[in-house]
Amino acid sequence: MKYILGIDVGTSNVKAVLFDEHGNEASVASRESKTINSKGNKVEQDMDAVWERVKYCIQMVVQSGVAAKEDIAGVGVTGQGEGCWLIDKEGNSVQNAILWCDGRAVNEVGAITKENPKVGKMYHKTTGTPPLLGNQMILLKWMKENRKDILDKADKLVFCKDWIRFKLTGEIKTEITDSLTSLINVQTGEIAIDLMEAMNIAEYRGYLPDPVRSDDVVGTVLDSFADEVGLRRGLPVIAGALDTSATAVGLGAIHEKDVCVILGTTCASEIVMKKEDCDFGAENSRYEKHPLGDLYVELQPTLNGTPNIDWLLENVANTKDFNEIDKMIDSVPVGCGGVVYHPYISVAGERAPFYHPYARASFFGISQATTRETLVRAVYEGITLSIRDCLMNVDKSGTIFLAGGGAKSPVWAQMIADAIGMKVMIPAGKELGAKGVALMVGVSQGLYKDYEEAVEKACTFTRVYEPNKKNTKKYDILYELYKNIRMHNDEFWNYRHQMNKDMRAIDEEDQI
Prior knowledge:
Elements: E1 3-9, E2 13-20, E3 25-32, E4 36-37, E5 43-45, H1 47-62, E6 72-79, E7 85-87, E8 97-98, H2 106-115, H3 117-127, H4 136-146, H5 148-151, E9 156-158, H6 160-169, E10 174-175, H7 176-179, H8 193-198, E11 211-212, E12 217-220, H9 223-229, E13 236-238, E14 241-242, H10 243-251, E15 259-263, E16 267-274, E17 287-289, E18 295-301, H11 307-315, H12 322-330, E19 340-342, E20 362-364, H13 372-390, E21 399-404, H14 410-420, E22 423-427, H15 432-444, H16 451-458, E23 461-465, H17 469-511
Helix pairs in contact: 2-3, 10-15, 12-13, 13-14, 13-17, 14-17, 15-16
């Protein structure tokens, strides 16, 4: 039996997973990954601390005794996308990584969406992604404008998984799924130098490695690291992929029109498409590269997924037992009697299916009759309707592959099937991102002849949820209220932001 090592460097947790040829998780190690949240909307991580956690997880699975080192075929890395991960010429981190969910670059986004919309449109059409907080191109601009002295100490700007792969192999590379989030011209597949010139950051072109294919072998594990953790020397390492793209492969979504929803820190909704069917630059569109061939994904990755649940558990629910949470949800009818929750809880606002840096979460319709159980269900329904918001144009005759921590809840899975009106399938196993890159390793090393065989052998499903048509009709009505409140809140979010600025100014006057 051959095994494959998949590494998933998430925002909240890092994991190393040893898979067998049939896609079974033979050994899993996980460690919590801490974020650094400073005043305002800044979110960072210590790059070296992230690597140490990954290293620990690799040691744990390799030394678990499940597989002999000669039986491990290769390594693949996936991880959180976007952000700003800077490395100097000696291979050291230059500063804390600025994460994808960071909100500091509001002025830079505003400069090319409002003050210079021609560049904003160029950005969207060129890269397939609108200018958003957390985009690497945007953060490179922010670094030049605000931390040029630190930026100039760097030599390369990479993504999270590239940093981990560099520590594994000593090779600095990046690949197409991460790069296409904001750096690549979707038509040529090359770094968008014309866009960099328009944004006045072309002098940093040399910081950006040219991207390679996701399943390309880009190096081997360093001998020193192999000896330290018990891997064999010369173990091949592939380029890997952005977590959302890798998860699509791990779910078996390798065909046109397949749909994935990942219930994680970000609730990412993906529709697999051919390039010729993508409308790059269309309003509210966002496209990224699928790891396979000419496939792309229409991606709507909200900023606001399970952090809403974390907030709910800390501040509203009187339990952290998810079985009890499911019972609370089930005790309340669809629609919560008109209580609606909008799940924009991130300090960076929202980015999908709309962009608003000052969007905030809120309840609507609370009365004396509102119970704790009502609020719990309303939060889950709010996240679910946000997913529906992201899948407005989906072909509902298809199937949703549902992944992420939230997919463990049968009540939530059924809610998603009902609210969107589509069949939902739950995959076997939990580590779908790591599994996706493991399958890429398997294809690259000949364990599978192609991706069709890889999915056939390694992707199975444990549960299927058919939509309840009666409930779907109710959610159709509820969604109209949800959407209309969201659209009308736009001006109030701006007012709230200005109000807070004015109040801070009054406090500052008192201090003078």
